[in-house]
Amino acid sequence: MVKAAETTPKRRTCGCMEVHNRLVERDPAFRARLFELERRTVERLAFASARVSDEPITLPVVVHVVYKKESENISDAQINSQMDVLNHDFAAENSDVGKVPTVWKGLVINSGIRFELATTGPNGNPTSGIT
């Protein structure tokens, strides 16, 4: 008679934490980098929580459209539409926000970040934000 334990295949587990703990124990440089990462994370979180304005942070962007044939090019209207989608996503205002899996629902927030096409290039010249 075969016992159940003999027929059940051995379950594989992730070795990530095992490797992490080994590095922490054996590599002082890894420990130092980890400490620095944690320090900077705490610093960044303190900076984010100290933000007093409810106004979003606006990031100017330049969209580079790369194509071989003119028929592959996209219109400015398409780019503007995708900028709207991006901003709705980052504000948690997108139409499919209700489809977020339950495990991640608590992480959905308005990021306080807004994107807009740049109006000035790096050299100070005016730009449409689309090249």
How would you describe what is shown here?
- With 131 residues, the protein is mainly alpha-helical.
- The chain is 40% helix and 8% strand.
- It is built from four helices and two strands.
- Strands 1-2 form a two-stranded parallel sheet.
- The chain is extended and about 70 Å long.
Q: What is the number of helical segments per DSSP (H or I, 4+ residues)?
A: 4
Which descriptor suits the 3D outline? extended
Radius of gyration, CA atoms, in whole angstroms:
24 Å
Order of H and E elements: HHHEHE
- The proportion of residues in beta strands is 5-15%
Largest beta-sheet details? 2 strands, parallel
Helix content: 40-55%
Strand runs, count: 2
- Tell me, rounded to a whole number, the average pLDDT: 88
**Strand numbers in spatial order across the main sheet:** 1-2
> What separation lies between the terminal Cα atoms?
73 Å
Low-confidence regions? none
Quaternary: single chain
Structural class: mainly alpha
